[in-house]
Amino acid sequence: MSNIKLLKEKASNVRKDIVQMICAAKSGHPGGSLSAADIVTALYFDEMNIDPANPKMEGRDRFVLSKGHAAPVIYAALAERGYFSKDLLGTLRQYGSILQGHPDMKKVPGVEISTGSLGQGLSVANGMALSAKISKEDFRTYVLMGDGELQEGQIWEAAMTAAHYKLDNICAFVDFNNLQIDGNVDKVMGVEPLDKKWEAFGWNVLKIDGHDMEAILDALAKAKECKGKPTVIIAETTKGKGVSFMENVCGFHGVAPTEEETAKAVAELEHVEKIEA
């Protein structure tokens, strides 16, 4: 696609769907889903080699949503990309729905791995990337982690593993919005300096504005060019991005908006669309 305007429109659609599906469910995690919308949109609509008509296509690129509670962002992107009908988004977290609070690889087309227990996604992504190396396949693996998730020790074991095996076919994102369920990340358990930590673990490190679509695409291109080591993109983002009353508000980590708040959020997103059109 590589059309920045079109990608921004897709990201806006993803954000509207996130807010509306969480409102309908009266449960979910809007803050971290909204902060990751631009990254996930860039991956699904520009970067990854995928086929919605054939979700298990051989040689497809893989995506791992390590912070599985942000499931609405991947559901919205998959539906927008054509993996399943958008009508299903309104069934989020309902009994019998394929769209539960965390992604289920056995039920949702396009979901590569069931996630939810924080800290495990990078390890799983390593396995995918290592299998590609062993099988001499050229697919790439992408993984999205939360910044609070980096407090988990398994992340750093996985970071060592990726560097040790020179997994240059893996690209990790850190959704660095500096808010987790209990408050500011730097107050709950500081993770900085992130760039120096990842560099010390042997990674190629890039830092970007996680809401700048051109910067995201440029970083992804640089990640592909890097040989002999894995790449991590530290994306500085805003929790609740795109919805004024949710931005940088810890309370919207895991609280659904009301119908009135949802209408206001959608109106704000559509207003920005008109300005950027």
From TrEMBL:
Residues 11-265 form the Transketolase N-terminal domain. One of its GO terms (molecular function) is transferase activity. Pfam families: Transketolase_N (PF00456). Keywords: Metal-binding, Thiamine pyrophosphate, Transferase. CDD domains: TPP_TK. PROSITE patterns: TRANSKETOLASE_1. The keyword tRNA processing does not apply. InterPro entries: THDP-binding, Transketolase_CS, Transketolase_N. It comes from the Bacteria. Its cofactor is thiamine diphosphate. SUPFAM superfamilies: Thiamin diphosphate-binding fold (THDP-binding). Belongs to the transketolase family. This is Transketolase. It comes from Propionigenium maris DSM 9537.
